[in-house]
Amino acid sequence: MIFVVDDEPVSADIVAELLQLEGYRTRVFHDSQMAAEALANSPVKPDMLLADFKMPGLNGLQLLARGKSEIQGLKTILLSGMASDLMQGDDGFHPDLCVSKPFPVATLLKSVRTALLSPN
Question: pLDDT of 39-68, one tens digit each?
Fold first, then answer.
């Protein structure tokens, strides 16, 4: 299960659809707070959290850090349109992988496979 979080619905839905075409199960969130609540309360925990950086409320780095603290072994990918966003957070957290927007479909899929196969 991959949680896809992006406040731009079209972006989130496209990413989720691409992942579904590759056989992954996805759950889409357009609000980072709702995604954070699902990480804490959902009976089905994701294997990966894929989030855009710039979102109202929790930004992508904050959300990914929260997910890692809630779910042991959670894989994380940060998506961003600006390389400066891909730096580590204030608390020293950094995602498993960063993907710069816009990205080719093959790059996204390879990043997901790489992150899911990497050791904890």
Answer: 999 999 999 999 999 999 999 999 999 999
Cα–Cα dist 83/62, whole Å: 17
CA 99 from chain centre, in angstroms, equals: 10
pLDDT per residue over 74-118, tens digit each?
A: 999 999 877 555 555 555 678 899 898 889 999 999 999 999 998
pLDDT confidence of residue 5:
98
Spatial distance between the Cα atoms of 115 and 120, rounded to a whole number of angstroms:
9
Give the chain's length: 120
Please give the full DSSP string across 49-109, using - where no structure is assigned: EEEES--SSS-HHHHHHHHHHHSTT-EEEEEESSGGGGSPPTTS---SEEEESS--HHHHH
Report the distance separating Cα 46 and Cα 73, nearest Å: 10
